[in-house]
Design a protein that fits this description.
This protein is an alpha/beta fold and about 475 residues long. The chain has helices at about 10-25, 35-45, 60-70, 85-95, 105-135, 150-160, 175-185, 205-215, 230-235, 250-260, 285-295, 300-305, 320-335, 345-355, 360-375, 385-395, 405-430, 435-440, 445-455, and strands at about 5-10, 30, 50-55, 75-80, 100, 140, 145, 165-170, 195-200, 240, 265, 270-275, 280-285, 305-310, 340-345, 380. It is about 50% helix and about 15% strand. α2 (about 35-45) packs parallel to α3, α13 crosses α15 and α17 crosses α18. About 30% of the residues are buried.
């Protein structure tokens, strides 16, 4: 494909001379005599490069540069400036011009600058294409990841989506449990019916049952009318129970009955209501520990945990960071209607070095702040949140333990012990998770969560 160039100069002879010179080199070159005409042409035709005189009459070269950066961000601009306009040329570079040529310039100089700028345009285009392809290759719906752990999650979603099996989605806050629920529902035969979401931690203990099962008029103070519950509204579709570990025991018993018999009564009512609902549940809590202390019913646990999906923390899948960073950068810029940007080297290193205790959600919010605050062509380190900037100055490792607090040092020691203990157990049982969990006195699902948390692949121990 020939590169398309638009030359903008109100001196017709100069425009024609440049057109002939560059056309003879194989470029496809058009000319315009004014900034307004250039905007009209750019609105109709995609150009790779615009070469414009700074001193156009009513719509100046700087005006044209600003318009291009706002409306045609992928088009490069070379500014032609008069003698003594170096200060303005520098300003043009800050606004995003690829280069400038002071008059008078010779043909060789013009050819070299054009060739270099178009090569950069091609490189950016190829990089952008790669990034788009990579994002498509490593995503399922709006879930993104190329790590082995995330590819296993995608595989389970694909296999269970068209079934009616109950799925329990595990993982720390901010890892994308709700996105997994969305992906399962909208790839299932129930996609045309409602997906109703209930945050079990968002309601008081007194109201959660009313929210789930509905209530009759006068069932409690404030119940001035009868109301349908989430199970009724979700009939024929899917009910997503988020923060399942926060349900109190009597609510758990009623949820269990619905799962077993597919029927329930309104709060304050005695009419049995039958429903056809698929259940997806999610929690960031250690349900196995709650089983041990009696705060979660064992029978409900096994009803919910038919198909477990474990989402690892972001620190356990750092190979996903570049793909996630590019995705959030692109989507945030589009949503905020900001020009396409990239990260300065130190800012990018800080993103890679940060621990991301808030996981994918924290990463997304950090990039949203950076895009909103950035004023340069590249996002700078100072545009990132303070917590992320600190990662660039100090990356904790084992050598930092002397400077850590007692609590931090103790936690690192525990994590190293757990990692080593688990790896040794897996090695003894040749990667068999069930046998390793039994030896350690753990539930298999609990060990799977630990494997995801520490980024341990049991397959490497199979012999």
């Amino acid at each position: 494909m020939k590169e398309r160039i638009l030359v903008v100069d109100d001196e017709r002879t100069i425009g024609i001379a440049i057109q002939r010179l560059l056309g003879g080199l194989g470029y496809e070159v058009d000319t315009a005599l004014a900034g307004e005409e250039a905007v009209e042409r750019l609105g109709r035709t995609p150009y790779h490069l615009v070469i414009t005189d700074l001193n156009l009459k009513t719509f100046t070269g700087m005006d044209l540069l600003r318009w291009i950066k706002q409306h045609r961000a992928q088009t490069a601009v070379i500014m032609i400036t008069a003698y003594g306009s170096e200060k303005i040329a520098v300003e043009a570079m800050k606004l995003g011009a690829a280069d400038y040529l002071p008059k008078p310039f010779d043909n060789d100089e013009l050819e070299l600058v054009v060739a270099r700028v178009l090569e950069e345009v091609a490189l950016r285009r190829d990089l952008r294409l790669f990034q788009e392809q990579a994002a498509d290759a490593y995503r399922f719906e709006n879930i993104i990841g190329k790590s082995a752990a995330m590819q296993r999650v995608f595989d389970v979603i694909r296999k269970v989506a068209d079934t009616d099996l109950t799925v329990l989605i595990r993982g720390p806050s901010g890892t994308g449990k709700e996105l997994v629920a969305n992906a399962i529902h909208y790839n299932s035969p129930r996609r045309g019916k409602p997906l109703i979401k209930v945050n079990c931690a968002a309601f008081s203990q007194e109201l959660v049952e009313s929210e789930l099962f509905g209530h009759e008029k006068g069932a409690f103070t404030g119940a001035v009318t009868a109301r349908e519950g989430k199970f009724e509204i979700a009939d024929g579709g899917t009910l997503f129970l988020d923060e399942t570990g926060d349900m109190r025991l009597d609510t758990q018993a009623k949820i269990l009955r619905v799962l077993q018999e597919r029927e329930f009564e309104h709060v304050g009512g005695n009419r049995t209501i039958k429903v056809d609902v698929r259940i997806l549940a999610a929690t960031n809590q250690d349900l196995e520990a709650k089983l041990q202390d009696g705060s979660f019913r064992e029978d409900l646990y096994y009803r919910l945990n038919v198909v477990p999906i474990v989402l690892p923390p972001l620190r356990a899948r750092t190979e996903d960071l570049p793909v996630l960073i590019e995705h959030f950068l692109h989507t945030t810029a589009a949503r905020l209607q900001r020009p396409a940007q990239s990260f300065a080297a130190d800012a990018y290193r800080a993103l890679l070095a940060h621990e991301w205790k808030g996981n994918v959600r924290e990463l997304q919010h950090a990039i949203e702040q950076a895009v909103a605050l950035a004023s340069a062509a590249e996002i700078q380190l100072d545009d990132l949140p303070a917590s992320v900037r600190s990662a660039a100055a100090r990356q904790p490792d084992d050598s930092d333990e002397g400077a850590a607090t007692f609590k931090e040092a103790k936690q690192r020691m525990i994590e190293r012990f757990e990692r080593q203990f688990i790896c040794e157990a897996l090695a003894r049982h040749h990667g068999n998770i069930s046998k390793a969990a039994e030896e350690m006195g753990m539930y298999r699902q609990h060990l799977q969560i630990k494997l995801a948390e520490y980024g341990i692949d049991s397959a490497q121990y199979r012999t």
